[in-house]
Prior knowledge:
The chain is mostly helical. Helices cover 74% and strands 1% of the residues. Strand 1 (480-481) and strand 2 form a beta hairpin. Keywords: Cell membrane, Ion transport, Membrane, Sodium, Sodium transport, Transmembrane, Transmembrane helix, Transport.
Amino acid sequence: MSPAVISLTIVAYFIILFTISYIAGHKADNEGFFVGNRKSAWYIVAFAMIGSTISGVTFVSVPGMVQASSFSYLQMVLGFIVGQIIIAFVLVPLFYRMNLVSIYEYLENRFGSSSYQTGAWFFFISKMLGAAVRLFLVCLTLQFLIFEPFHLPFLLNVILTVFIVWLYTFRGGVKSLIWTDVLKTFCLVVSVVLCIYYIASSLHLNFSGLVSTISDSDFSKTFFFDDVNDKRYFFKQFLAGVFTVIAMNGLDQDMMQRNLSCKNFRDSQKNMITSGISQFFVILLFLMLGVLLYTFTAQQGIENPGKSDELFPMIATGNYFPGIVGILFIIGLIASAYSAAGSALTALTTSFTVDILHAQKKGDAALSKIRKHVHIGMAIVMGAVIFVFNLLNNTSVIDAIYTLASYTYGPILGLFAFGIFTKKQVYDKYIPLVAIASPILCYILQRNSEAWFNGYQISYELLLFNAAFTFIGLCFLIRKKSTMDNTTVL
């Protein structure tokens, strides 16, 4: 595909995106920006959430990962469904009952200001890194397809990309996000289904031939129970999926801001369960697409790229299929990535404004002004992180995201678990030390697990160890009342 065609495709998509964003966010106040005025219909949010859980990373990386991991990712996705159910029936009623704007306000009510700040800062680091990694992948693809042919630098690519994300979110916040996510979900699902259709047609496969080609492929193996040391081992993947979605969805302001926009907690529960089940089938489509891509390259004698993340972009835009396949790829990638970055930018703005600056205590006019300034600042920081990541990247993007999440979301998961499942009070001022020590211990454990545990490789279940270290650390901080003077002692 020519850079001109790709550019026109992107421009057309953004015209639609900005139109929807402007209408949805028209006259949005602070409540509309933060929680969508709590008037969103649950079925609209459910459809939007399908796309919001699937980023540009999923769109590009999941089809390519079947070569190394087969369909083992579905084991993790099954865990996602269980995690969504736990969020729906444990966290959602709690957050609605407390009428929270930022979910990290729970930590202040439960433990104190130090734990509140700890949760907010760990979210800030987690989301900033995660969003930057996701948007980095888009910048990388756009650099290859558009900016390099026009001899434009990567820095300009990053600046324009982040500016566009900021531009369509600054008016409406969550109100805009929900409707742009609806557009994203529609574009993403249609694009992957039509890509499968066109690739299957090029392989001369009817529906039954398509099913048999995928099911007979070695790449379609889904369940791995044989070797506990294998990173694909079922219980590693499944349990990691359960707790990853609890941490990255249930304890993440980015994802929960949509759920908190529903009219009540029961509507939010319907939304979460519906979107969680739907996500399984959408991920399955991406994995099926991956099998077809590798089948096609083998049949045509095409050399696979050095990185699996590059397979789908290379085939979709390499003139192997009708031009519509490349256009659909671009639309799907842009729809998934920009929406994910926009929601992250909105969540970062909300958390930094409410949790760290406490601007909600300064009146509505001051809050609005501070929010707008923070929104600009978050966009600048995100752009800087993307540029730095480009200099340091040496791993698969999807692997990088889950590894980062294991280190940064673990303390948040441990804090919430201790707060919800115990009634103990702790020495709040020492909580930041526990939250910092836990990822350090996890790093040491991961680096030495094979030597210490007979070849056992720690995968995404590192999140569980991180949360457990935090939970245990909090146990050492429990306040105990003296039986003599009713004072608190260690």
